[in-house]
Amino acid sequence: MAQPHLGLIVPPAAGAVPVDGPLLYGERIRFSARGLGLGEISTRGYLDVIDSVVAKAVELKKEEGVSAISLMGTSLSFFRGATFNRQLEVEMARATGLPCTTMSNAIVNGLRHLKVRRVAVATAYIDEVNAQLRGYLEQSDFEPLALEGLSISDVQAVGKVPTRALVDLCVKVFEAQPGADGILISCGGLVTLDAVREVEERLQVPVVSSSPAGFWDLARTAGLDARSPGCGRLFAWTAPA
C-alpha cells in the first residue's frame, strides 16, 4: 500500500510541517505543508492572509499530489465564527476536489469524540482572540467554563512555551470553575503532546489540543487510522470519519 500523503496549510511563512505529525504517525503518513506568512496572532494578522488559503490548498494538490488537506490554524478558521469556518472548508474542497478540513473542525470533533461538552479552555491568545474562541465554541454547542490565555501574539513565540507553563495553565482553568468534562488547549503553534499526557494523568479528564487534534482530524478526513498509542485519550481508539 502506498504511503498516504496529506497536505497542511500552516500559519508561519516557512511552511514547515509541525512536529506533532511525525511524532504521532512516523512513517505511516507523509505530510507536506504550505505557509501563509501570518504576521501576528490577531484579527489584523488573520485578515492579511485568510484570502490566500484556497490558493494554498490548490498548490498542495497540484504541486504535491496530496489526497486530503487541512488548514492547520485554529484561530485562523474560527475568528469569523462557525459559519465562516464551514464556508472555508467548502471552498477548499470545491477548489481542489479533495476532502478538506480545518483545525477548528478538529477541536470540535475531538471534544465531541471524547464526549466533552463543558470545557475548561487554556490558550496562547490575547483577549480579542479568546473572545472569538468563546463565541465559536458556543456556536458549536459547547459550554466554555473558565477560559484564559497566555496573551501571545507573536507567531514564533508560541512554539517556545514550555510544557510546565501549559500544564500550570490547564490546571488553573480546570480548577477555576468546577464541572468541566475535559480541557481544550487552543493554538496550533503550541507544542503540547507532553502537556496533554501529563494533564490527563494528573486531572483524570480528557484533553484536546489544537495541533495533535489537527493531525488526528486530517487522518480521519482522509479515511485513515488515526490512532497513536501513548499520545493521549484522543489517540487511544478512533474510527475514520
Automatic annotation (TrEMBL):
Entry superkingdom: Bacteria
InterPro entries from the UniProt entry: Iso_Racemase_Enz_sf (IPR053714), MaiA/AMDase (IPR026286)
Pfam families for the chain: Amdase
Coiled coil stretches, renumbered: none
Protein name, entry field: Arylmalonate decarboxylase
Protein species of origin: Variovorax gossypii
Lineage: Bacteria, Pseudomonadati, Pseudomonadota, Betaproteobacteria, Burkholderiales
